[in-house]
Amino acid sequence: MKFLAVLGNPIMHSKSPRMHNNAIKILGLKGIYTRYCLNKDLNLREELFRLGFDAVNITAPFKEKAYEIADFKDEISSQIGSSNTLCLKNNKIYAYNTDGIGFLEAIKGFENIKKALILGAGGTALALAYVLKQKGIEVCIVNRNDRKFQYFNSYQTSLYKNLKDFYFDLVINSTSAGLIDESLPCDKNVLEKILINARFAFDVIYNKETPFYKLCKKYNLKVKNGFEMLLWQGVFAFEIFFELKNKREEIKNAMLQGLKF
């Protein structure tokens, strides 16, 4: 029996337990998946072993910390310094990042992207910037402050107030703005200057139409929320949790079914 969970703060909005538990049931596996709200000041490594998890998904704001505490990291995690999936074996922590590859699956319908703007500079932004750059796409990171710009040395960065270039094919909201309130990632006037020139938009938030999402629709962009990214990062994490191969379509369908309940 595997004891699994998604950890973050806030966390009650997460639909991951519905996805994973239904996949466990449909595929006839032994395990249970829950959610757990972490204190932002805790010792993450100590807490994971104390709670006895076999593996976990990590969400905001702990993805960089998840990477730091791991004994072994996969290639994407090592490149970006951020992990969203941890496996605990023999008192060791193995870190993976499935956010980036999940995101690429989600935007397969967005074509001919040359330039992308990512709003926010957290762990999710790191993953998305990396996979976009690997696809040959020019990436710019824009944020309210420059505290985390040190992690984006290979990308163009700017504060919102200093942004001069407003021409991007794809605009991504990687922040939590709008998740539990009606806020935008940045000043509306700045955002409108960006959206009026864009063709596509993506909001990592998946459980509501945020003000960002609504504004993108107002400007007639082809826009997606984070639902498909949630689904696919979950599929890839599930494969890691249970060491599965050639079951991807079954996992995806089971998780989709779980989200319909």
TrEMBL record:
Enzyme Commission number(s) of this protein: 1.1.1.25
UniProt GO MF annotations: NADP binding; shikimate 3-dehydrogenase (NADP+) activity
Name of the protein in question: shikimate dehydrogenase (NADP(+))
Pfam families: SDH_C (PF18317), Shikimate_DH (PF01488), Shikimate_dh_N (PF08501)
Domain SDH C-terminal: 226-256
Organism, as annotated: Campylobacter estrildidarum
Biological or metabolic pathway of the protein: Metabolic intermediate biosynthesis; chorismate biosynthesis; chorismate from D-erythrose 4-phosphate and phosphoenolpyruvate: step 4/7
Keywords in alphabetical order: Amino-acid biosynthesis, Aromatic amino acid biosynthesis, NADP, Oxidoreductase
Catalytic activity: shikimate + NADP(+) = 3-dehydroshikimate + NADPH + H(+)
UniProt keyword annotation of NADP present: yes
Gene3D superfamilies: Leucine Dehydrogenase, chain A, domain 1, NAD(P)-binding Rossmann-like Domain
InterPro entries per record: Aminoacid_DH-like_N_sf, NAD(P)-bd_dom_sf, SDH_C, Shikimate_DH, Shikimate_DH-bd_N, Shikimate_DH_fam, Shikm_DH/Glu-tRNA_Rdtase
Domain (Quinate/shikimate 5-dehydrogenase/glutamyl-tRNA reductase): residue spans on this chain: 113-177
Domain Shikimate dehydrogenase substrate binding N-terminal span(s) in chain numbering: 6-86
Keyword Chaperone listed: no
GO cellular component term of the entry, any: cytosol
Example GO biological process: aromatic amino acid family biosynthetic process
